[in-house]
């Protein structure tokens, strides 16, 4: 796995696949580390009688090199709410293996120039 030069912001990645828990690799061999996973509405909010909404999950990843290790096969990866593979789909969206759609956003952090990928899950029909 190489970390290479950063892709130009504004150009979606074609594919991200899990190589280890919380670590994905893109088609250029760059590694993306999951730093935040937001699940909403929370189970607690639904229990308090809030209106029922489809879940709106958001995943934040940072592009950064990680210590190279042998990738795990999909059968070796622990169960996760995150997809094993995100594939670019028309409309700047990603389609996961389970057919969920995720919107693509990217930005650069000001201080360290780390590229950050933000993937909010789209609700059905979006």
Automatic annotation (TrEMBL):
MF term (GO), any: protein serine/threonine kinase activator activity
SUPFAM superfamilies the UniProt entry points to: Oncogene products (SSF50904)
GO biological process, one term: intracellular signal transduction
PANTHER family the UniProt entry points to: PROTEIN P13 MTCP-1, T-CELL LEUKEMIA_LYMPHOMA PROTEIN 1B
Record family assignment: Belongs to the TCL1 family.
Official protein name in the record: TCL1 family AKT coactivator B
Organism expressing this protein natively: Ursus americanus
Recorded name of the encoding gene: TCL1B
